[in-house]
Amino acid sequence: MNLFRPMFKRAFLYCALVLSAASLAAQDRTLRVNYVFAGNSRESHIYVDDLNVIDGWAGRRVNLKDLYLEGNGQILMTDAGTGDTLYRNAFSTLFQEWQNTEEATRTDCSFENVFLLPMPKAPANVTVTLTDNYNSVVAKLTHQVNPDDILIRPVGQNPPKWSYIHHGGSTSDCIDVVILPEGYTSDQMDKFYKDAETAVSSILSHAPFDRFRDRFNFMAVELPSVQSDASNPKTGDWKNTALASNYSTFYSDRYLTTKRVRQMHDLIAGVPYEHIIILANCDVYGGGGIFNSYTLTTANHKDFKPVVVHEFGHSFGGLADEYFYDDQYEQYYNSQTEPWEPNLTTKVDFSSKWEDMIPEKAGLYEGGGYMSKGVWRGASDCRMRTNACKVFCPVCQRSLERIIRFYTEE
Asked: What is the CATH number of domain 162-318?
């Protein structure tokens, strides 16, 4: 009898996986949930804005119940009847970055956030959780989604024009990345396509992306702006652009972002995507990358190529900045917790990082995550530290390879 138990166990697990998969939409649809995150340096609140449904699902089809990285927040979908996990994902937000600013100590503010989930076949519960720099939960919201809800608005019936810059394979097998133009007028679309090609070739020239070219699709989407460039509040130059981006985010001159996240997702609804790169038609150095949200960088600056790769390391790979300043930014990392980012350590749980790579492939170099003390990185230089470095360090390369495999392999 004991000989048959392993076979029975495997059969039981297989049936459980089939039943769990059956809870997701057979119609292959995307549930887009629009949230508002609001608060200040002391409080965090999560609000549901509304729900949308889009034909097709461009997200991962493997490891749906698992996380590769923890992020600064997580979204979880469970079957309302059984409690079984259907889908999980992690993220970081501009809102949580803002909470570390001086402005957040004296005012409240709200930020848009959009998440793409596989549409469930039956009622499901969606839970959004935000954590602080000590990995403590600071806000949590659970709400139910009924796929038959008549107020879930269909979107994406008339997607914008788009084309492949790099076609690695089918949407179901590949990681789908859209490249969006910001500050390109209708008669500048040819320039946008050339800039998009430059961005893609730059990313795919770096290890480990070069070895996994066939696992990525990169698509350029035409979103013309009324005016060129991006808004620069420091000079009082506000532009009418497709994605309403601006420099001086958090009053930092080179931090170029957009808070109009809902508007961006509305514009590209119907295009198969799960990751976003925005190219701004600007000469001034700037940009930003937010884990599982978007990359934004300027296409006309001399450091365009290394910067777009660096920022994609943030938004796709969840890699942290490895540069630092002489003065301390203690609010970012602390000695009591291990950073969730794979390329930094406080040595609280170094065995979960790159301890196994020392000393052959990596080391311990103090300074990273904007802090000169108390945080360590794995190499003296890296694409996540300087624009002059031509490669990702071994620690970052291994993590990027693992996340690519996480998205594409059982």
From this structure: 3.40.390.10
